[in-house]
Amino acid sequence: MVIVKDITKTFALSKKQMKMNGTRNKKKVAVKNVSFTAVPGEIYGLLGPNGAGKTTTLRCISTLIKPDSGSIKVDGFDTVNESSTVRKRLCLLTNELKADPNFSADYLFAFFGRLHGMTDEEIEKRKKFLFEVFGISEFAGIKTVDMSSGMKQKLSIALSLVHDPQVVIFDEPTNGLDIITARVVLDYLKRLRDEGKTVIISTHIMTVAEKLCDRIGMIMDGGIEAEGTLSEILEMTKEEDLDDAFFNIYKKSRERLDEK
Amino acid sequence: MRNNIFTILKKELRRVFLDRKLAFTVFIMPGLTIAILYSVMGGMIEKTGDDAMDHVALVKTINVPSAFSDIASELYGDGMDVLPISIMDTEVAKKEVEAGDIDVLVIFREGSPAAIERYTNSVKDFSVRAGYMIDGIIDSMRLEVLGEKLGGIEETIIYNFTQIDLAKAEQRAGKAIGMLLPMLLTVFLFAGAMQVGMDIIAGEKERGTLSTMLLTPVKRSHIAIGKMLSLAIISLASCLSSLAGVLLSLPFSNSMFGGGFNVSDIAYSISDFALLIVQMIFMAVLFVSIICAMSALARNIKEAGGFIVPAYMIVLLMSMSSMFVRPEGLWGYFIPVYGNLLSIKDILMFEYKVVPGFAAIFSTLVFAGVMAFLMVRTFNSERIMKSA
Q: What is residue A260's predicted lDDT score, i.e. its pLDDT?
């Protein structure tokens, strides 16, 4: 279970960034009082436009960065004070994370398995399973640098799942994937949910959210604007599909901001 | 904890040792290049010396006494060709010296005392050497004249002056090697670590592969230490390759180290080599800590290069100054890098003492510790590692 409670995260802006953003403010609030809970056996989707704070929230959960205020508990462990324990229980996959080009899939899998404290036997067993799921076995021996982008993406997913985490966090899970690999990934996420894992994804693709997520949190300008199941959100907005519901909420959010 | 550091260390070593091209570049090429380069350069320096010895100095003279040609023939035999010319040809002869067609023009002018003018061209090696030969002839002429005045050449001898060098042959060899080798070792150590060091930290940040590691339960400090240790091993191995290259080239590059010794005179014991390697290990740790700290601060390899090159320049400056400046007392040994260089010089010159040696190691460890601390802090810094 992941409990995000009232987290806020600000970043200092460089002069160049201030110029690019057209602001004199030296700080940017990326996430503001965000709270939500993702429970085992569900896929929770953070839906929002670019720059809304989805990735920052996921990076806070996965201990890569610390929130300025608020708290995050992963299976009861605090992400700031018990970060090592938290990292044993979760995985994060984003397009920014890459597999080292100098090594083969076989070597990298064993390497990350060892860093997660797994025995050689556990690593072999897990490797056999994940390599079969993602079709990696055929190219397991070649260096990552010689792999196609699709192969690399599959490998990155397998590497992030090496330790069989209880909480799986995917930032834009289908971004940059070909249709077949995207389908494999989405099916695997459903499988993880059915196995009782907590899955959190971020996306700006409405169809992915509609098909995959049990509950959705709509994040805009760093804050959660709406949360619920698909039907709850549609009912709340009186719209017929998620696309329209999203724009309805987005419009209201903009109007509120403009008023301020 | 140890397991994680060891796992990361093994991975980084594997990256270099199993990549044939990289392994060749880091471990084989420095030694090979140095062996070939130094042999060729040493051979060229020797050839230049031989050419100078074989060269017949062309000297044009105006109004010189007959004793000049006699002494020239006596001192240099066929090595000098003396050609008397008319005073009318003075300007032409000067131009010939300028052009390098002849080596020296000597003009004697009557008077009391007589004036002697020697024209040489300081940018022409043969001319410079011929000028010294002329000085030798004039000195001999002066003594002859003095001998005539005093009643015999023996009257000009005031002292029987004998020069005796008490230094042993191996000490002379050690001094020659100790002059240049510490600087070369420093350059090899730093250069060996720089290429790989930038790649395994700043390169991993740039490629996005470091974040994958930061997401494991391993402490960031352990990742930093693992990378640092692996780089120290790589740097040391690269430096040993370069050292082997220097040693292999010694029979042919003797003159590059100032000459004056035979390769057979080099008599370092196993304990000398052990001490040398110990000093190199500590210097490798120091350089690696600097490179790692700078690389961790950088967002990419290009930026890391911008941070590391000034540090490299400072190290170069220190190593060059150690060739010429030797401070009195212990304080110099307490300066990181410089102290190591002095210790290495002491070892090579058979003058190593325990206290200064330990002072150098102590200062190096303190500085490396500070750098390692900075690196770990950097790895733990969210602001700096957010680009990873």
A: 65
